[in-house]
Amino acid sequence: MIYIVILLSITTVVSTVLLLMQKKEIANIRSSLKKIREDRSSEKLHSVTGTAETDALITEINSLLEDLRAESMLYRRRRHELDNMLTNISHDLRTPLTSALGYLEIVREGGISEEEEERELAVISERLGRLRELIDSFFEFSRIVSEDKEPSKETINLVALIEDSVSGFYDVYEDSGRHIELDLKGTRFDIVSNRMMLLRIVDNLISNSYKHGSGDLHIIKEDNKLIFGNEMPEGELTDVSRVFDEFWTTDVSRTKGSTGLGLAIVKQFSEMLNIGISADAEDGSFRIVLDLAGIRA
Asked: What is the largest CA-CA distance in the chain?
């Protein structure tokens, strides 16, 4: 009888100790989770008892925490990209809209021939069409970023696309006494890419040259490379390691309204389209080079 009592006593003590250890472990887990939530830290939970059951539970909780952190980082990255896109809308839409409004004012004021009026209205129609393409590209970019989907692709004549983009900037350059010189080695160079995103890349590179460069812009195709080159304003230095950073500009007073997002979007879109991109500056000249070898048709 006494042995039974002793055995029951030992069992009770062991059970009590295990219960207290479990309560201590639960309290430790709750406290650690609260600290992680409040501090938004990346710490992991650790067992204080070392039992197999609590170790397995903590391992599962840590795995869940890692998954939640990864999803949170992905959400913040996508939110950041979308915020940048929205911030950039007014910057990128200003050129065709301002141009269309300028030509519309000429028509409204009158005093021009019927032939001139038709020409001005044709320019307005072209600028508004360009504006619609830009808006479409924003929606396309939004879908790609939010859904993390692969951009739709088609066979594109790069030469024709560049000429289309250049026509939209002709007046801007001419009014500044500057020109866009093309050396595309022929009338056709087929690639497989997303038309709207690629047009946005070329537009932004031409716009960037106008806002930050001086002299004429030279667009040259050499084998599988497309080179955008221009002179830099006298005395201005360019940190080529930062030109693709968001919001970075060399001199705010000389950026002609730039938000510093144009080249950041060029880099992002290039990477999404498997286009290599680099920048270099020497002897007063600045170049951006697109490597198209990976998207040849």
From this structure: 122
